[in-house]
Amino acid sequence: MFSATHSVLVIFLILGGTNGDSVNQTEGPVTVLEGALMTLNCTYQATYTTSYPFWYVQHLNKAPQLLLKGLTADKKVEHEGFQATLVKRDNSFHLQKRAVQASDSAVYYCALSDTVMEGCRGS
Would you indicate the residue range of the signal peptide (predicted)? Predict the structure, then answer.
């Protein structure tokens, strides 16, 4: 049983789809004190310049949900206190939240897509 003052974030490595694309992210369980800054790293290699990184979140017993998408280089995108900036020169899209809460305990996935999905968060 975890103390109410901690938030546990479980992270898995997700590999990109086809054409030699790949994604590397923070691996394994990450424990962050409630109210602290959380950073989850995501770097990727893409065959095509039209590939875009995404962050998904999956809460216990729920389906994964889109959290953020990176479509514009060097532009910060935000949703529900989470933020990420697509840095094309580093091929990175690191996820951050300034004051993590117990309700943020979930599995976080960084993924890569070569198509833009309509109606996604971020820009």
Answer: 1-20
Residues with Cβ within 8 Å of residue 67, at least 6 apart in sequence: 54, 55, 56, 57, 79, 80, 82, 95, 108, 121
Q: Find residue 40's DSSP bridge partners.
A: 95
The CB density around residue 68, as the number of other CB atoms within 10 Å, is: 26
Of 3.40.50.300, 2.60.40.10, 3.40.1280.10, 3.40.50.720, which CATH number belongs to 35-112? Answer: 2.60.40.10
Residue 116, Cβ neighbours under 10 Å: how many?
10
Model pTM score: 0.77
Q: How far is CA 7 from CA 30, 65, 73, 98, 107, in A?
A: 9, 19, 31, 13, 12
Q: Above 60 in pLDDT, residue 20?
A: yes
